[in-house]
Specification:
With about 600 residues, the protein is of the alpha/beta class. The protein is built from 20 helices and twelve strands. The chain has helices at about 10-15, 15-30, 35-50, 60-110, 115-120, 125-165, 165-215, 215-220, 225-275, 285-325, 385-395, 415-420, 435-440, 450-460, 465-470, 485-500, 515-530, 540-545, 565-570, 575-590; strands spanning about 50-55, 55-60, 345-355, 365-370, 375-380, 405, 410, 425, 505-510, 535-540, 550-555, 560-565. The strands form three sheets. Strands 8-9-10-5-11-12 form a six-stranded mixed beta sheet, sandwiched between helices. A four-stranded antiparallel beta sheet has the order 4-3-6-7, with helices on one face. Strand 11 (about 550-555) and strand 12 (about 560-565) form a beta hairpin. The longest helix has about 55 residues, at about 225-275. Bound molecules: adenosine-5'-diphosphate (ADP).
Amino acid sequence: MIFGKHINKYYFKYAHMLLLGILALLFVDLLQLEIPELYRMIINGIEFGQVEVDGEILPFNMSFLVDEICRPMLYIVLAMVFCRFLWRVCLFGAGIKVETDLRSRMFNHSKTLSQQFYHKNKVGNMMSYYTNDLETIQECFGDGVLMFFDALLLGTLAIAKMARMDGILTLLTLIPMVFLLIVGTVVGQYMTKKWEARQEAFSALSDFAQENFSGIAVVKAFVKEFRELWAFRKLNKDNEKANIEFTRASVLLHICVTMFVESVICVILGYGGYLVYIGEFNAGELIEFISYFNSIVWPVMAVSQLIEMGSRGKASLKRISELLDTTVDVKDKEGVSDIGSVRGDIEFKNLTFRYPEADYDALSNASFKIKSGENVGIIGKTGSGKTTIVDILLRIYNVPDNTVFIDGRDVNDISIQSLRKNCAYVPQDNFLFSDTIEHNIAFGLDDYDVAEVQRFAELSDVHGNIAEFSEGYRTVLGERGVTVSGGQKQRISIARALMKNASILILDDSVSAVDTETERTIISNLRETRRGKTTILIAHRVSTVEKMDKIIFVDDGKILAVGSHEELLVASPEYRKTVELQRLDEEKEG
Ligand code: ADP
């Protein structure tokens, strides 16, 4: 069984299943404890030719065998089969339901966590929360309840029956169990630590594997397969070591349990045999007593498994709780309202921004205005703060009050969801899902017309490429399907953003992988389709943005100049220098 902040409520939520399961379990245990009496009757019947049943002496013959032994045994077996089926469905079913429920909660919470969280927590680690840790919780809940109640019910009932037969013999059998409990508690604590270490080792291993498979092209290109293999082997060894340490403790516990159980059997045989010798017990009664003890062997074993499982469960629940308790740092403040549909006016006012845990400002005192309907280019060197500007606009990070405004309203007074609904975004490291091209393009919409998908693919100049695939728009991309080139990926992402038809469109370096001709077509199409709506295009080449209504020129986190290409040429010597350098570069390349 497992208890904790995030799990306790499930004992109430699934109380009906748990209660029914425990009732079925109690029934099975009661029936099971009827069997030793049948053993006694047979042994004594064979030895004495007569059997005592409820104080009455009956002859041991065929009709006794059928009526008092075989028929009750058959009923007991049938009832036990039915009840065992019932408790399995109820208790294991509840465990699976808890796992499903927790997984949904975790996924729901994970979605609200900030980009910063995902920078720190790698995918491999996240995946082990969702697989290993959840499986352990499921096991602890379903199997844990079963083991706890079975050990308790069967153990108590069997001990009561044993005590009724002989108090001293029962006491002698229980002494080693006390030692077992002490050893179990100590080893259990050690095992919790070892399971934590094992989970961490597994996370590191899956992080590494996931990163390596994602970056396989780089590994191959640099012929670093061997080095990566060695690094993997080391992590695999660490994982093996952590597993072995946990298993060693688990085996030690198991051996202790077996040793205690065997020692009790010795006691029963020794003292029980003596009781038969002095005539206090007969052979049938000794067999009955041993059968009762046999039925508590499983509960005793279950105690050791409970300790082991509890240790794993505690460690896994701690990890899952860490995820569920991670505070959502980018969230709406109290009393924000939905902004509805925006015009697309944007203003940055003296914004100084530093990434959480960074040592320097990514933007210093940034101020600019974008009017709705404007086509704006943001240009500057790598690392100058261009992506930071759009990340802030999309409220991926927190900003101080009175620094960023949409349609004249402080972004901190607007709900994040309603703000993002008004924006369409093509990120720099654009991502396509392992799904059809059609679904990828229409990702932003719940309802769409297939003809519209094609229209936006044409506007992003990717329709020709898609038409060449044998399955066209139904072509599945990614791991299970076709791989598209960097340029095609960018254009499909642009089609996806365009189709959202939002008031503000942001393209972060989104035409870097297409040729100049295609770039020109896309930008001209953008101008046509985005008439009256705000479009922001981050670019490296001045030629990409020179025809835009406005250019924001960024350098080292500062906004150096804002204006049209011609205005900047006059007003900003740095911009002139950039233009000149890029022209020389192009001439050289040309
Ligand atoms: P650009 O888009 O112009 O290439 P960015 O806006 O991505 O530049 O980055 C601006 C600066 O902020 C860079 O120095 C970069 O290293 C830093 N930076 C970007 N993202 C983060 C982050 N998540 N945490 C800390 N620093 C960051």
